[in-house]
């Protein structure tokens, strides 16, 4: 079992080196691999760091002993697992979602982790590209280009200094259709005026 104590990760399914479709984003503190450890079932998802992370690996027997000997730990773990299962159940609808809906949800996930409020909208300060968006949503590059072109024409999404700029976050929320890779969007305020767009 891995304990994520600092940082942020994404969990994905990998069809090949080019297609790594995002399932969800996880932020510290949380556990990874606890269901496999407790059930003995095989891993079927992958995870990678989006930021610098601090992970602590705990032996399965030590993890189980901790749960059995700590009255509040099982309840905390149950809440965390239930939260992630809730996301997974909601994301089952992704097979029915439009490309625009999947892209909108992914942008909201990155905005929640790396978004900064500015006078022009929300800036995603992460090296996200249209190619990465295509890989993480399982869509073709052509369909991603089409979605972004439409949003740019409508003034919803733009690029500024290499960052995605979400000008009208409410419209992106609406376009997501309820699909979520994290539970909610919370952009942070710009800390210093010189960092504004």
Word description of this protein:
The chain is of the alpha+beta class and 197 residues long. It contains seven helices and eleven strands. The strands form three sheets. Strands 9-10-8-7-11 form a five-stranded mixed beta sheet. A three-stranded antiparallel beta sheet has the order 4-1-6, with no helix packed on it. The chain has a three-stranded antiparallel beta sheet with strand order 3-2-5, sandwiched between helices. The N and C termini lie far apart (41 Å).
Features:
197 residues; alpha+beta; five-stranded mixed beta sheet; three-stranded antiparallel beta sheet; 7 helices; 11 strands; elongated; disordered C terminus
Describe the secondary-structure layout.
Elements: E1 2-6, E2 8-14, E3 20-27, E4 30-32, H1 34-39, E5 46-49, E6 54-57, H2 60-69, H3 73-91, H4 99-114, E7 115-118, E8 121-124, H5 130-137, H6 141-154, E9 157-160, E10 163-166, H7 169-176, E11 188-189
Parallel strand pairs: 7-11
Antiparallel strand pairs: 1-4, 1-6, 2-3, 2-5, 7-8, 8-10, 9-10
Brief account:
With 197 residues, the protein is an alpha+beta fold. 41% of the residues lie in helices and 25% in strands.
- Tally of helical segments: 7
Percentage of residues assigned to helices: 40-55%
Spatial order of strands in the largest sheet: 9-10-8-7-11
Helices and strands, in order, run as EEEEHEEHHHEEHHEEHE
Give the number of DSSP strands. 11
| Beginning-to-end CA distance, first to last residue | 41 Å
| Rough outline | elongated
Give the amount of beta strand, in percent.
15-25%
Oligomer: single chain
Major β-sheet annotation: 5 strands, mixed
What is the gyration radius calculated from CA atoms? 18 Å
Q: Stretches where pLDDT falls below 50 for ≥5 residues?
A: 185-197
The average pLDDT value, as a whole number, equals 83
- The SS-based structural class is alpha+beta
């Amino acid at each position: 079992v891995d304990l994520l104590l600092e940082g942020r990760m994404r969990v994905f399914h990998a069809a090949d080196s080019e297609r790594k479709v995002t399932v969800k984003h996880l932020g510290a503190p949380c556990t990874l691999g606890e269901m496999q450890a407790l059930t003995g079932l095989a891993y079927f998802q992958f995870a990678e760091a989006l930021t610098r992370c601090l992970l602590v690996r705990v032996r399965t027997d030590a993890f189980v002993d901790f749960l059995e000997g700590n009255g509040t730990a099982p309840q905390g773990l149950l809440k965390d697992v239930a939260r992630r299962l809730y996301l997974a159940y909601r994301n089952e609808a992704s097979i029915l979602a439009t490309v625009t809906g999947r892209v909108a949800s992914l942008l909201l996930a990155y905005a929640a982790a790396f978004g900064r409020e500015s006078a022009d909208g929300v800036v995603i300060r992460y090296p996200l590209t249209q190619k990465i968006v295509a890989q993480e949503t399982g869509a073709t590059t052509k369909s991603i280009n089409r979605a972004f072109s439409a949003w740019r024409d409508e003034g919803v999404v733009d690029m500024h200094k290499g960052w995605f700029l979400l000008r009208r976050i409410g419209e992106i929320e609406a376009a997501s259709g309820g699909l979520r890779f994290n539970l909610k969007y919370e952009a942070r305020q710009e800390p210093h005026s010189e960092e504004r767009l």
